[in-house]
Amino acid sequence: MTVAATNSTPTAASNAADQTSGQNQLNTTYNSFLTLLTAQLKNQDPLSPMDTNTFTQQLVAMNGVQQQLLSNNLLQQLVSQSTGAGSMGSAVSLIGKSVTSQSSTAALQNGSAAWNYNLTANAAKATLEVLDSKGNVVWTGAAPSVASGIHAFNWNGKTTDGATAPDGNYTLNVTATDTTGAAVASTTAVNGVVTGVEVNNGVTQVDIGSVPVNLNSITSVQNPTQTPVS
User: Fold this and answer.
1) 170 beta partners
2) Domain 95-222 classification at class level
3) What CA–CA distances, in Å, run from 207 to 71, 107, 152, 169, 186?
4) How far, in Å, CA of 227 to CA of 222, rounded?
5) pLDDT tens-digit profile of 174-192?
6) Nearest 10 degrees: CA dihedral of 175, 179, 181, 185?
7) How many CB atoms lie within 10 A of CB 226?
8) Average pLDDT of span 5-29
């Protein structure tokens, strides 16, 4: 008779279920404790109030439950940051890789900033605008191509009046219309090498040069092109 081996290691799903169940039990205990304590205070005999030591012990116990809840929440945040598709751990592995991100912001460095824009249909007219970090339009002009598909746009850092824009982060806006004047949908993307990883307000971001983008906005990852050693 063959006996199949059993796996005693808990799965991620069972761990998550156990954590949720434990959290719910602690929340219930905490809420029940507050209800009972409030009822005691409201209904105590004014001529024989609750003993001060007993009251202090209950407050200490309540604080302990609250601290346990906060600790569990922090632990869950740390676990979520170290596992999963949108985690800090998976983001760190992208450092040094060349990525494409659905973003409209690119860094102007050494007189060059680059974007890709994608038109969902052929357009009769397409206009590009480059905005600075304050939202001011510093350059505007006709798009290099109005055909459906992905096109590259490289900006040399020259403003519409011919001045040289300072290095920094700039945003590309695309406005396209067809022969009837109806709007043609478009998206923008940036390419670059990931230089760092950070978490802002619980959202994992990677730095493409000096521009932070959400990890979930990355659509492709490649090893950077290496120049052969002669």
Assistant:
1) 106
2) mainly beta
3) 30, 11, 21, 12, 24
4) 15
5) 999 999 999 999 999 999 9
6) -40
7) 6
8) 52
Residue pLDDT, tens place only, 96-146: 999 999 999 999 999 999 999 999 999 999 999 999 999 999 999 999 999
SS3 state of residue 183: strand
H-type alpha helices, the chain: 12-43, 52-82, 88-92
Alpha-helical (H) ranges within 83-130 are: 88-92
Q: Using alpha carbons, select from 67, 56, 164, 42 the residue that is nearest to residue 112.
A: 164
- Write out the H or E segment, with its range, that includes residue 111: none
Which residue has 């799965």 as its token pair? 11
CB atoms within 10 A of CB 108: 23
Task: Over range 194-198, report the average pLDDT.
Answer: 90
Rounded to 10°, the helix 12-43/52-82 angle is 160
Q: What does 20-82 look like in DSSP terms, one character per residue?
A: HHHHHHHHHHHHHHHHHHHHHHHHSBTTBPPPHHHHHHHHHHHHHHHHHHHHHHHHHHHHHHH
- Read off the amino acid at residue 170: Y
H/E segment holding residue 181: none
- The full set of domain ranges for the chain reads 95-222
Residue 210, SS3 per DSSP? coil
User: Is the model's pLDDT at 209 over the cut of 50?
Assistant: yes
In angstroms, the CA 157 to CA 36 distance is: 67
Query: At residue 7, does pLDDT exceed 80?
Result: no
